[in-house]
Amino acid sequence: TLEDAIISGRNDTGSIVGEMHAGSIHSVLVKNINLLGYDQTGGLIGRAYSPDILQSAVLSGTITGNSNTGGLIGISSWENSLRGDIRESFSRLNISGHSTVGGLLGYASYVDLTDSYFAGDIQASGSHSGGIIGNSSSHSNTNVVVENTYTISTDLPVGSSGGIVGSADDDTVITNSYWNTDTSSKNTTSRGRGLGKTTPELTTQTTYGSTWNFGTTWRVPVSNTSYPCLLWEEAGSCPEALVSEYDISSCEDLQNIQNIPWANYTLATDIDCSSLDFIPLGTNIIPFTGSFD
């Protein structure tokens, strides 16, 4: 474990390794870092060629870079025809950069990324930012493969950004991966990769499907309370779902509850809606699960 570190550099800056060639990082936890770099800045590694990452994470802190900035790796590439492999890992922190900024990987090429997630804030002033990967490009078929991932990133910018990946080509394969449309305000991702889901959906186990191995790889989420986390994490440490709170001051406010039926509501003043054709709140498919006081 690396904790409470302040690290600064120029290019190829990481909290564990600046540049790595076909190396491995297993069971490494970084907590509360303040990492400042320029190009190729990553929570674990700045620049990685054919990395092997297992059950490792950046749990808290901030990362600031320019181009190719990621929660785990700034730029993940390859050498000697060897694919990179990143699995059962995550980052939960705030990331800022200019372009090619991702929750896990800034730039990705020839790598498999499975059973991993990002939770935090992403700010990018330029192009190519995504909740999991900023930019992925190909040199051969199925160059980048992403499976069983999710992101609850916030503040994804407009322009060339996406819920899962900011910019992807046809050889980027993303399956069973989701981003939170409530927290990110993003309704799209590059080339339709991944699926946007609401907070209630992402805190429900059935959303994730049979390929997500709950009980062996993942902890089961708690409905409307927490998202999934990896089984190797400490119990009770899963990312919490923030429940919004709203005041009801008009009939319009009351009817709009149907748009966010999992939030908490408070009646701020007396209202009379008897003259309106009021639509009942909640359905069998999407019931009201919040609170009303």
Describe this structure in a few short sentences.
The chain has helices at residues 181-184, 199-202, 251-255; strands at residues 2-3, 6-8, 13-14, 17-21, 24-26, 29-31, 33-36, 41-42, 45-49, 52-54, 57-58, 61-64, 67-70, 73-77, 84-87, 90-91, 94-97, 99-102, 105-108, 111-118, 121-124, 129-130, 133-136, 144-151, 161-162, 165-168, 172-180, 195-197, 218-219, 229-230, 245-248, 264-267, 291-292. It has 293 residues and is mainly beta.
Q: Which secondary structure elements does this structure contain, and how are they paired or packed?
A:
Layout: E1 2-3, E2 6-8, E3 13-14, E4 17-21, E5 24-26, E6 29-31, E7 33-36, E8 41-42, E9 45-49, E10 52-54, E11 57-58, E12 61-64, E13 67-70, E14 73-77, E15 84-87, E16 90-91, E17 94-97, E18 99-102, E19 105-108, E20 111-118, E21 121-124, E22 129-130, E23 133-136, E24 144-151, E25 161-162, E26 165-168, E27 172-180, H1 181-184, E28 195-197, H2 199-202, E29 218-219, E30 229-230, E31 245-248, H3 251-255, E32 264-267, E33 291-292
What does this structure look like?
- Strand 31, helix 3 and strand 32 form a beta-alpha-beta unit.
- With 293 residues, this protein is mainly beta.
- The strands form six sheets. Strands 1, 5, 6, 10, 11, 15, 16, 20, 24, 27 and 28 form an eleven-stranded parallel beta sheet that branches. A six-stranded parallel beta sheet has the order 3-8-13-18-22-25, with no helix packed on it. It has a six-stranded parallel beta sheet with strand order 4-9-14-19-23-26, with no helix packed on it.
- It has three helices and 33 strands.
